[in-house]
Structures are given as structure tokens and as C-alpha cells.
Write a structure and sequence with these properties.
Elements lengths: L1 E7 L3 E8 L14 E6 L8 E6 L2 E6 L5 H10 L17 E6 L10 E2 L2 H9 L8 H15 L4 E5 H6 L3 H4 L15
Parallel strand pairs: 1-6, 6-8
Antiparallel strand pairs: 1-2, 2-3, 3-4, 4-5, 7-8
Helix pairs in contact: 1-3
């Protein structure tokens, strides 16, 4: 099974392709067959795409800062050029997306449906820097890969599994005691 994983951020896009050869999860994290990173942090720059596959590293300058074009260029490196790691994009069995906020509705990885996309959009105010970009990545991958199943893994789901005493942050607002001068 080939799994494409995307982690979209406001200034970067990190992605990996994993291949699981057994019908169960491995005990240790598998090594990615392919990794890509798009960096949009350079002011005035169009962005840079770095790809690691076949034990080599390539860097590409992007022609503009359009996310759709950048993701398309990134995904093409899976099947074209020296970074090619698979013969056809149809080999990708599933795509996973890190999504920052799932509200109180999502407490586990969730198959992305139109309803889930609608909910992610409704949660934009809770994660205005991340959720819009996360949803955009989901929709771009739909355009590129068609009906490949996509799964959202929500940060809020991760945090919902913590014991309550670990999840609550308490801050003591004590005033400092005045020290006598002299």
C-alpha cells in the first residue's frame, strides 16, 4: 500500500510517500520512499521545492507562489525525472492530511467527505492560518488524483486523547511580593 502524506502550513508544505508492504502497521515508523518540502518563507521569492528520493536530493525553483501549481509540480516528481519513485499516480492508495482544527466533532482520523470538508471550512475562525490551507490542499489533491481516498488527521484528535490533567494548562497569576528596600 502506498500512502501519500501531506502537512500543509502557512509557509511550507511537507510531504512523504510511504510504502507499507505488510497488512498491518509496523512497530516502528517506516522510512519514506520519497520526501518533498516546499518553502515559501523567503520574502519576494516564488518558493523552492526540495525532493529527496532514490538516496538523492533535488532542488527546484518554483515559477510563482500559486499553491495549486506548486503542489502539482511536487506530485509530478513522484512519476517524472530523476526523482521518479513510482510509475503512475494511480499507484497511490490513500492520501493523509494533517488538519489543525477538527473542533469537538473529530477525535480520530476521518475519511474526507463533502461533509467533512464543510466542517473544516466552518472551523476556519478557530485556525485561520491553517485550516484554509489544509482544505485547499485537500481540494488540490482531489484535482490531481481524482477519487483516491483521503483521510484527515486532526491535531485536535491527538490532543483529545491526552489525560485531562495533561491537557489542562494552569497558570498561577500571583503578584510578586514587594521587597523592602534598604
Amino acid at each position: 500500500m502506498k500512502i501519500l502524506v501531506l502537512n500543509a502550513g502557512s509557509s511550507s508544505q511537507k510531504s512523504c510517500l510511504y510504502e507499507l508492504t505488510e497488512n498491518r502497521l509496523q512497530e516502528s515508523k517506516p522510512k519514506p520512499k520519497w520526501e518533498a518540502h516546499i518553502d515559501w518563507t523567503m520574502v519576494g521569492e516564488k518558493g523552492e521545492l526540495t525532493v529527496i528520493s532514490n538516496n538523492k536530493k533535488w532542488q527546484f525553483n518554483l515559477t510563482d507562489n500559486d499553491r495549486q501549481k506548486a503542489l502539482f509540480s511536487m506530485v509530478k516528481t513522484l512519476v517524472e525525472g530523476e526523482s521518479k519513485i513510482i510509475d503512475d499516480l494511480n499507484e497511490i492508495d490513500i492520501v493523509g492530511h494533517r488538519v489543525v482544527h477538527g473542533g469537538n466533532k473529530y477525535s480520530q482520523p476521518t475519511l474526507i467527505t463533502p461533509e467533512v470538508k464543510k466542517e473544516i471550512k466552518q472551523l476556519f475562525p478557530l485556525a485561520p492560518v491553517h485550516n484554509p490551507i489544509n482544505l485547499q490542499g485537500i481540494e488540490i489533491i482531489e484535482n490531481i488524483l481524482g477519487n483516491v481516498p483521503q483521510v484527515a488527521v486532526f491535531d485536535t484528535a491527538f490532543h483529545s486523547q491526552k489525560p485531562l490533567k495533561s491537557a489542562i494548562y494552569r497558570c498561577s497569576l500571583r503578584r510578586p511580593t514587594a521587597m523592602p528596600m534598604g
